[in-house]
């Protein structure tokens, strides 16, 4: 319990020391060894953590949560074959565990198999329909796969898990980008402006806003957004290019202004 408390307070050295003592006291204690593995992992001792998890698999071979966790760890280390192997074992032991489906989905995504990834993500959502992290990853896959309509639906489902007005700016930003991909530029500009209002301005976000505004025919607003972005990043090449295009368009429409 002391090790768990230290882990919660991000006191990694103390957590490792206390959990190690607990494992020495009773090497067959599943909870103690799992806390020890997590403490080692948090401290950055990844190989040692994996070794403890492998011991834990031997102690609790039917515990699907152990299989799912070691699958996550293996994936973070880039060991996709082992990650998939442990994820499959977790699913065999408990097919209703969303974490196991998520790990296997991430393995498929890592390998570029988006269809398999989406299928596993959907299985995860069947058991945890409001998992925000999964919904975000689903939206990202749809965007990469060139299906912005489905990406937007996933983002809207994700936004609905928050109270109105409490959606994180990142979600609003991604919705704005997706509206642009759907050529719904007015809605894109409105969503991007709201994201910036909540999160604060950044050069990249202002640049995306300016692109949407320009595509919607709001040239004056787009130029204002670009000049604000330049104050934050005067070396941003995309901002200068878009600003030059807007000035060229203005000059073409009004030759006397040259």
Cα distance, first to last residue? 75 Å
The secondary-structure class comes to: mainly alpha
Q: Into which percentage range does the β-strand content fall?
A: under 5%
Mean pLDDT: 91
Please report the total strand number as a whole number.
0
Segments where pLDDT lies below 50 for 5+ residues? none
- Morphology call: elongated
Helical content band = over 70%
With helices defined by DSSP (H or I, 4 residues minimum), what is the helix count?
Answer: 15
Order of helical and strand elements:
HHHHHHHHHHHHHHH
Question: Largest beta sheet, briefly?
Answer: none
What is the C-alpha radius of gyration, as a whole number of Å? 24 Å
Helix and strand layout, with pairings?
Layout: H1 2-8, H2 12-25, H3 30-43, H4 46-59, H5 64-76, H6 80-93, H7 98-110, H8 114-127, H9 132-144, H10 148-159, H11 169-181, H12 185-199, H13 203-215, H14 219-232, H15 237-253
Helix pairs in contact: 1-2, 2-3, 3-4, 4-5, 5-6, 5-7, 6-7, 7-8, 8-9, 9-10, 10-11, 11-12, 11-13, 12-13, 13-14, 13-15, 14-15
Describe this structure in words.
The protein is an all-alpha fold and 258 residues long. It is 78% helix and 0% strand. It contains 15 helices and no strands.
